[in-house]
Amino acid sequence: MIVAEQKPLEDIQRMLKGKKKVLTVGCGTCVSVCFAGGKKESSAMAATLRTAAAAAGQELEVEEVTVQRQCVQEFVAPLEENIDEYDAVLSMACGVGVQTLAEKYMDTPILPGLDTNFMGQPTEPGIWEERCVGCGNCVLEYTGGLCPITRCPKQLQNGPCGGSEGGMCEVDTNIPCIWSKIWTTLDRQGIADTLMDIQPPKDWSKSRGGSMRRVVVSDDLRQQAAREAGERATTVKVAPPQSPMKQVAPVQAPAEAVKLDETWHRACSFSELTEGKLQRVTVAGVDVIVTNLGDCIRAFPPTCPHLAEPLVDSGILKDGLLTCTKHLWQWNLRSGEMKGAAERPVKMYEASVSGDDVMIQVEQEITYDYDEEDDFEEDDFFGSD
């Protein structure tokens, strides 16, 4: 997969200087997997740009939309209906996606929101490592499927340099010596003796050598590709750009005089609640976050309704606006209105104050159906249908 990361906000703001209306376009494939430019990241970027502009007293309208693949023209074609309305488009895709939009919509500035890094794989949650440089002359058949061109700083092709210690590279002691891994792999397969065959100097003519590379398939496959492109052009749909505000029914503050029955339980002392802070308590065996907004008390489950992120750790509360910093989902706790990238509301427990006691009504524990992964369309990121 292509691995990318978001450009610094100040760079994006510089690119958008003077623009009044901007469209952020997310991509539902590679950059979605590495949390750089998928649907949620595109929405979060749009929210961040709106917030930053408002704080600076600037006028900036930002809408967002996500397509399944920005690198395929048929998937970005539906944007044609609205793209002329914007002063610029911020592409949250790899460099290929940016260029696809730029070639398709030449009258609209297409700006990159990401830096494209490499082709790689996740090695553990939240970490991606490079695995292929696209050299055009693959040698993996000789090296047990492990690439010394990408993973050896010296790009050695005929064994290790001899400087590694304990299986770690001498150039960067934080990474394993790939030739140590190659030897171990081939030895387990019983073919380590093949490493005695000297490989000739690498043919770099197919690598990136100052000219654009191209792959051309046979005529019959080209005809098949043209048919499939035509089918996609008539079936691919893109949801209209989303405006920032999403309304839900407001959460009503409990009346001052509340009849407390057996479903109401003491959570803590009102005097213990620091205004504007999130405090986790256990009420009737249920974990709850309770907070004093100054003019009302709010109580809700302890995790974000998106991916179960603990809000005591990842939540920021300011002026009644709760932000989960994991993916910038936000809620106005007074009105219940969703903000930022939020796609579902925070559910609330009824809360009241009796003397110095904060009372919360817990009839049953409030739970969410959490996302297991980015829910773009049908989660068929790489499907062709």
Protein architecture, described:
This protein is an alpha+beta fold. The protein folds into 3 domains: 2-119, Rossmann fold (3-Layer(aba) Sandwich), CATH 3.40.50; 135-206, no CATH class; 245-385, 3-layer Sandwich (Rieske Iron-sulfur Protein). Helices cover 20% and strands 23% of the residues. It has helices at 9-15, 30-33, 39-55, 73-76, 95-104, 148-151, 178-188, 219-235, 311-314; strands at 2-6, 21-27, 61-67, 88-92, 110-112, 114-124, 127-132, 264-269, 279-283, 286-292, 297-300, 315-318, 321-324, 329-332, 338-340, 351-354, 357-361. A 4-stranded parallel beta sheet has the order 3-2-4-5, with helices on both faces. A 4-stranded antiparallel beta sheet has the order 12-13-14-15. A 3-stranded antiparallel beta sheet has the order 1-6-7. A hairpin with a 4-residue loop joins strand 13 (321-324) and strand 14. The two termini are 20 Å apart.
